[in-house]
Amino acid sequence: xxxxxxxxxxxxxxxxxxxxxxxxxxxxxxxxxxxxxxxxxxxxxxxxxxxxxxxxxxxxxxxxxxxxxxxxxxxxxxxxxxxxxxxxxxxxxxxxxxxxxxxxxxxxxxxxxxxxxxxxxxxxxxxxxxxxxxxxxxxxxxxxxxxxxxxxxxxxxxxxxxxxxxxxxxxxxxxxxxxxxxxxxxxxxxxxxxxxxxxxxxxxxxxxxxxxxxxxxxxxxxxxxxxxxxxxxxxxxxxxxxxxxxxxxxxxxxxxxxxxxxxxxxxxxxxxxxxxxxxxxxxxxxxxxxxxxxxxxxxxxxxxxxxxxxxxxxxxxxxxxxxxxxxxxxxxxxxxxxxxxxxxxxxxxxxxxxxxxxxxxxxxxxxxxxxxxxxxxxxxxxxxxxxxxxxxxxxxxxxxxxxxxxxxxxxxxxxxxxxxxxxxxxxxxxxxxxxxxxx
Amino acid sequence: xxxxxxxxxxxxxxxxxxxxxxxxxxxxxxxxxxxxxxxxxxxxxxxxxxxxxxxxxxxxxxxxxxxxxxxxxxxxxxxxxxxxxxxxxxxxxxxxxxxxxxxxxxxxxxxxxxxxxxxxxxxxxxxxxxxxxxxxxxxxxxxxxxxxxxxxxxxxxxxxxxxxxxxxxxxxxxxxxxxxxxxxxxxxxxxxxxxxxxxxxxxxxxxxxxxxxxxxxxxxxxxxxxxxxxxxxxxxxxxxxxxxxxxxxxxxxxxxxxxxxxxxxxxxxxxxxxxxxxxxxxxxxxxxxxxxxxxxxxxxxxxxxxxxxxxxxxxxxxxxxxxxxxxxxxxxxxxxxxxxxxxxxxxxxxxxxxxxxxxxxxxxxxxxxxxxxxxxxxxxxxxxxxxxxxxxxxxxxxxxxxxxxxxxxxxxxxxxxxxxxxxxxxxxxxxxxxxxxxxxxxxxxxxxxxxxxxxxxxxxxxxxxxxxxxxxxxxxxx
Lengths: 439, 478
Known about the structure:
By secondary structure, chain A is mostly helical. Chain A has helices at residues 18-34, 36-82, 88-94, 129-132, 140-145, 150-166, 169-175, 179-185, 189-219, 223-248, 254-283, 289-302, 308-318, 334-370, 374-385, 390-416; strands spanning 97-100, 120-123. A two-stranded antiparallel sheet of chain A has the order 1-2.
C-alpha cells in the first residue's frame, strides 16, 4: 500500500500558511505511519476489497462461460428440434431461442439484481406472458444471504470501518491527557484534525480503490465508467469521514461516540431503507403476478371452445394486415393457434403493463428515497453504472418482448399466406441481439 | 448464590442509570415489536391472498365445460404455497423463491413470482424481519451492555477492593454473566410472543420452543463474547472497538464472503442449462402427441398382440390415450430424475454454505432458524415435489380417461371432422378428479431434527467461550 498522496480534504490548505501546513502534514503522516492499528485497518480494507473484486470477477467469468455454453447448446437444440419438421407451425412450436443480458464491464463490482432477477430466457412463438416471467434465478439461499460484492462492501462495510477508525481520534487524546497540549502546539487546530482524519480516510479510500482499479483493468472496464465509480467512492468515503469526524468532535467518551455513529449507520443503512421499502410497496400496489398468468392462460384455453371467428376478429384488430387471410376452415390450423396465443397476450396486456409500470414506479420512488440513505444511494449508483439495476433488467425484458415481436413478424407471413415450408429459410430466423432481418 | 444476584442486580441498576443503555434497549425493543407486527400483517394478507388464488384455480379447473381430456392436460392447474405459521418470525427463503407454480402436461415449470422481485429495491438490508433483527442487531445491544461489565469496576477502582474482600474472580464474573443472561431472557420475550402467536395459528409448541432455545444460545454466545472482552482488556476504547470489529466481521462480512466462496465453487447449473441437457435426452423418448412416432412402435405391437387384433381401431382402448399415458410416465421419470439432480445440486451448495457456520455463528443460526420455521430450501423443494405429484396425478387421470372413454377412430379425425370432434368431448364432471392442494410444513420434530446440525454449530462457540470465561475469572486481577 502506498503512502496516501492527496487527502480528500484539500481545502484545508487554504486557511493555513503554506510551509506550516506542509509541516503539519508531514508531522501527521509520520504519526500515522507509526500507528499499527491504522495500518491494520488499511490492510483489512485492502484484503476485503480484493476478495470482493476477485469474487465478482470470478462470478462474471462464470456467467460469461454459462452464456457461451448456453448459446451453443441452444443452437444445437434448435437444429435437432427443427430437423424432422414439415411445416412452419411446428417449426415455430419446437424452436426455442436463447435470450440473455450479458454482464457489463463493471458488473464484477456490483452484481446487483442479477442474483435475484432473470437475465436469461428461452423464448418461442407461444404467448409471451407465459414465458417472460420464468426466472432462471440463482441459488435461493445464496441470493437470500447476499453476496460480498464490491458495492455491498463499499456501501455497508466501509462506513463501519471508518467509524471504528475515526470515532476515538479526539476522545483517545483526551483520555491520554494529550488533547490540550496537542491543540496548543498545533497552531491551526482545525487543520490538525483535518489532516488526521484526512490521512486515515485517504488510506481507506486508496486501499478500497486499488483492487477496484486492478479489477477494472482486468475486466476491460471503460475508463470513464471506472472514473465515475471511483469518484462516487471518493465522495462517499469523504462524506462518512466528515460525519465520523464531526461526531468525534463531540466532547464525550469514545464509547458514546461509537454508539452514536453505529446508531447513525443503522438509521441510514437499515432503518430508513426498510421503512422506505415498506412504505413504497404499500403505496404502489402491483397486480398479483399470478393474475397475469391466469388471465393469459384462460384466454388461450377458452379459445379452443370459442368460435374461431371471434379469436380471429380479436387478432385482426391488432394485425389488420392479415384480415384477408383470417378465415379458418379446419378444426385445427396453425395460424389460428398462434392467433389465439397472441390474443392471450392481448388479454393479459393491461395487467402485464400495470405490473411493469408498477415496478418502474416503485423503482422511481426507491431512487428518491435513496437520497436519504447514502449507503443505498452508493449501492444503487454502482449498480446503475454496472447496468445490474432494475432499470437495466427491465430494459432487457423490453428487448425480449421486441425479439418476440420479431419472431411473430418472421412467422406470421409464412403462416397466414400459407407459404411452402422451406427449412433453409429457418437460417433467416431473427437472432436475439442482432437487428431484425426483413421477413 | 445470593452474592451472584447482588452483583447482577447492581449491574442492572447501573444500566438503568445509563441513558445509552436504556436508549439502545428501547430502540431494539421498538424494532422487534415493529418488525413482528408488520411481518405478521404482511404474511396474513399473503396467506389469505394465496388461499384465495388456490381456491379460485381449483374452482376454475372443476368448472371447465365438456371437452377433450387432453385439452385439460394443457389447460393445466395452478398451485400456491401457503406460508408456514412461523414465517411471521422468519420468512426465510419465501422472499426469494416463487410461491406459485403452473402445472401442465409434459412439463415441470419453475415456481414464479417471488416477493422480492417486484419490491422496491433499497439495498441489502431493506427487507427487515424479526429474525434478522435478532441475528444481526441484538448482538450489538449485548456488546453495548456487556463490554463495560468489568471495565467499569476497573475504571472506578472498585475491582481491587471487591477482590480483596474475598470475592472470587469467578464469582464476580458469574454475577455479571447472570445479569447478561437476564438481559437475554428479556430480549427473547418478543420472540416468545411471536412463537406463541404461531402456536395459536396451528404451529407446534415444540417448534416455537426450539426457536427460542436457538436464539437464546446465539444471544448468550454474544453476551459471553462481550464479557470476555471486558475482562481481557483494560482500555474501554480498545474493548469496544474490538467488539464492534468482531460484530462487523462475524455478522456482516463473513456470511457474505461465505456466499461468494460457495458460489465460486460452482456447481449450480441453472434451469435453462438443465432443461437443454434434458431435452437432448428426451428427444430419444419420442413425442407423446404422435402415436405413430417410431419410439412407440413397440408399445403398439405389444398392445395389438395382447388383445389379439390386427388393427389399432379394433383395440378396446384408445391407442392415443395409452401412448399419452405411457409417454407421460416415461417423460416424468426423466423429468423427475433431472429435477432430483437439480435439487440435490442445490442442496449440496446449501450444505457447503452451511459448513461456514462453524466460522460465523450467524450463518449457523440463520440456517437452523429457517429449518425450524419451515422456510428453508428443504421446504421449497418439498413444495416443488408435492406440486409435481399433483401434476402427475391429474395428468395421468386425464390420460386414463382419454384411453378408456374415447374411440380411436374419432380421436384421429377430430382435427378434420367436427362431428368426431364433438364425440371426443367428455363430460365436465370428469374434472372433479383434481385433488385439493394445501401445502403444510413438515411435522415439528422433523424440522427440529433438520435444524440440529446447524444449531449444534453454536455449541463449540458457547463451550469455548465459557471455558475462556472460567479461565479469565480465575485469573482476574485488578
